[in-house]
Design brief:
The chain has 187 residues and is mainly alpha-helical. Helices cover 79% and strands 0% of the residues.
Length: 187
């Protein structure tokens, strides 16, 4: 399925087409379950299944699909939601482990290690939140950023996908980086 088919499915889903919505759900599920499984980490994998996280993300995607302004950025937006869900689950699990009495948690320095992990997760969660917000407010810039950094697409490929010049893609990337930095400084 190419980008124009996805754009059309997203438009139909936003208009309430049940079949288009179901097809998008299947695509999100198929695309992200395997991709995110490796990102869970061993501790989180024991507690949660990737399927649970992706299904939870799909529910959020369906709830908020009407606010998506750039249909071409649908999968980037969906992946951000999935990763955000995963970061929250990881943070919750780490807090539970830190509060469990006995065992390794009583070792000297363990609190500092847990604190460092939580700070890292909080930074990651802040990044995902900022990305999610920017996808809603600046979809073209964030779609280009996502395409280059997460999907490893070249400027040339992005320009073709968006039907614009390479110079415009460079500008969008620069704007996206600047907006993301500003958002992260504020949070």
């Amino acid at each position: 399925m190419d980008g124009s088919d996805t754009i059309e499915l997203v438009r139909k889903a936003k208009a309430g087409d049940v079949e288009a919505t179901a097809q998008l759900c299947r695509q999100v599920f198929d695309r992200f379950v395997e991709e995110l499984r490796g990102d869970l980490g061993q501790a989180l994998r024991r507690q949660y299944d990737t399927v649970d996280i992706v299904q939870s993300a799909i529910a959020e995607i369906l709830k908020n699909i009407g606010s998506l302004r750039n249909e071409a950025a649908f999968f980037a937006w969906a992946k951000t939601i999935c990763r955000h869900k995963m970061a929250r689950k990881r943070k919750k699990l780490q807090r539970q482990e830190a509060l469990t009495p006995g065992g390794e948690e009583d070792l000297p320095g363990k609190d500092l290690a847990v604190e460092a992990l939580l700070e890292k997760e909080e930074d990651l969660e802040r990044l995902y939140e900022a990305l999610g917000e920017l996808f809603l407010t600046d979809p073209e810039e964030m779609g280009a950023l996502y395409g280059q950094y997460w999907e490893r697409k070249s400027i040339e490929v992005l320009a073709k996908e968006y039907g614009t010049s390479q110079r415009t893609i460079h500008r969008r990337l620069e704007d996206a980086r600047r907006r993301l930095q500003e958002r992260l400084r504020r949070s």
